[in-house]
């Protein structure tokens, strides 16, 4: 009698043919080229967009020497010991410079941001000054050149202030405005079409019959895509039917830069995504040594990138953050992606078998001593979306890790910055 040889399955700790998380990330990176299309937009609309060109300054900032304090602008050479007196001959306000000469022995009252008179090089804080009519007496140690912001101190003409591929922050919007630009050239937003697959899925508003569930993946995907600043195209639910899938994939790839699907990428009887993609494009099906989220399809349909995410709601989110997020950032031309992991003490014990990289859902919290620590959210099943909802970070456990004792240091990836 022939011997029955079981096939590797999701329940196994490790399969020899599976890719590591970093290998899969590298293969994706190798295939993506950043988009070159760009558009102009107003400063306000440029928030969170990626710069198409470096921005160099047409002016110097500050434009002129100005006072860093409310006080008195003086000649540094008039400083004499810890007490000296000067004659006040005028006042300079921000936006209203003092015009006229300031001779030695004279000073002017000056407000923060007001232009320094050409003759003066030093500002004395008003708190150090005693006023008697037109005469002031300065007390305390003063240094020549103090309390003055010099022209060009922040930015020189021609300085590159923001690099190409930089994702614009509120501070950047202010800086661009301070240089006098009204518009910014940014990379075109990328378009991402997505749909859920599965005969069991119903849309909200429909009634559920036995065995049916509401489609939740399209909502998490929509949220994650929105946070990334792409244009999402929601294509609804597609049945486990070859013709319907073929039509949906063609339609999606014709109108988007990236197509995402969830479900139907494993080895079940109704998992047709693989067959359709082999017909329409070049797509690899990977088993990744990770938990959750083992099956992932990645490739192209014509020039459109394709990610076939698993169906389980937590797996969708984990694979999105680990593979799709960096890919979309790279495609969108965002070059400022930072590593976002930290090491913290984990108060919970964690059970794990060596063999797969695990993304456990964790909660970062502040302990009684004001230190940041992490605990797990408890139940970690890949269908338990609540574990994502109550989490604020992933606890990253390397393939070789075979469990964590309470109060060990772990690597954590906070959701802020990720989502
Ligand atoms: P699949 O990968 O298609 O075998 O799906 C794996 C599991 O995820 C099954 O229990 C599905 O019912 C569930 N699932 C698939 N797609 C969705 C979805 N869009 N929303 C919620 N659950 C889903
Ligand atoms: Mg399915």
Describe the protein in words.
The protein is an alpha/beta fold and 419 residues long. The protein has 4 domains: 161 residues, Molybdenum Cofactor Biosythetic Enzyme, Chain A; 49 residues, Molybdopterin biosynthesis moea protein, domain 2; 84 residues, Molybdopterin biosynthesis moeA protein, domain 3 (Beta Complex); 76 residues, MoeA, C-terminal, domain IV (Beta-clip, Beta Barrel). The chain contains 7 helices and 26 strands. The strands form 7 sheets. The protein has a 6-stranded mixed sheet, with no helix packed on it. A 6-stranded mixed sheet has the order 16-13-17-21-20-18, with helices on both faces. The longest helix has 19 residues. It is elongated. The model has no long low-confidence stretch (mean pLDDT 93). The structure holds adenosine monophosphate (AMP) and magnesium ion. The site of adenosine monophosphate has 17 residues, from loops.
């Amino acid at each position: 009698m022939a011997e029955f040889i079981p096939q590797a399955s999701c329940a196994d700790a490790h399969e020899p043919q599976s890719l590591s998380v970093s290998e899969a990330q590298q293969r994706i990176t190798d295939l993506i080229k950043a988009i070159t299309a760009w558009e102009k937009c107003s400063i306000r609309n440029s928030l969170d967009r990626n710069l198409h060109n470096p921005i160099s300054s047409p002016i110097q900032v500050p434009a002129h020497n100005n006072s860093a304090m409310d006080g008195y602008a003086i000649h540094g050479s008039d400083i004499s010991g810890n007490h000296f007196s000067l004659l006040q001959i005028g006042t300079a306000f921000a936006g209203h410079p003092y015009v006229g000469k300031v001779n030695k022995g004279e000073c002017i009252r000056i407000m923060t941001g007001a232009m320094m008179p050409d003759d003066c090089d030093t500002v004395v804080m008003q708190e150090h000054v005693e006023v008697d009519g037109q005469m002031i007496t300065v007390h305390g140690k003063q240094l020549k050149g103090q309390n003055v912001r010099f022209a060009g101190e922040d930015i020189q003409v021609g300085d590159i202030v923001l690099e190409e591929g930089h994702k614009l922050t509120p501070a950047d919007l202010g800086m661009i405005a301070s240089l006098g630009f009204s518009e910014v050239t940014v990379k075109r937003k990328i378009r991402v079409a997505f749909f859920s697959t599965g005969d069991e899925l119903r849309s909200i508003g429909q009634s559920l019959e036995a065995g049916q569930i509401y489609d939740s993946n399209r909502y998490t995907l929509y949220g994650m895509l929105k946070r990334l600043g792409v244009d999402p195209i929601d294509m609804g639910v597609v049945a486990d039917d070859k013709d319907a899938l073929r039509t949906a994939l063609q339609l999606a790839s014709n109108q988007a830069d990236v197509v995402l699907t969830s479900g139907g990428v494993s080895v079940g009887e109704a998992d047709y995504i693989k067959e359709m993609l082999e017909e329409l494009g070049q797509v690899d099906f990977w088993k990744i040594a990770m938990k959750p989220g083992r099956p992932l399809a990645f490739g192209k349909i014509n020039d459109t990138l394709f990610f076939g995410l698993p169906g389980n709601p937590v797996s969708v989110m984990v694979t999105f953050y680990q593979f799709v997020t960096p890919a979309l950032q790279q495609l969108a031309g965002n070059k400022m992606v930072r590593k976002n992991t930290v090491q913290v003490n984990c108060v919970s014990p964690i059970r794990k078998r060596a063999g797969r990289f695990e993304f456990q859902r964790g909660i970062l919290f502040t302990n009684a001593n004001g230190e940041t620590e992490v605990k797990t959210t408890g139940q970690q099943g890949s269908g338990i979306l609540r574990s994502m909802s109550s989490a604020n970070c992933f606890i990253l456990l390397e393939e070789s890790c075979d469990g964590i004792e309470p109060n060990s240091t772990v690597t954590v990836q906070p959701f802020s910055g990720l989502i």
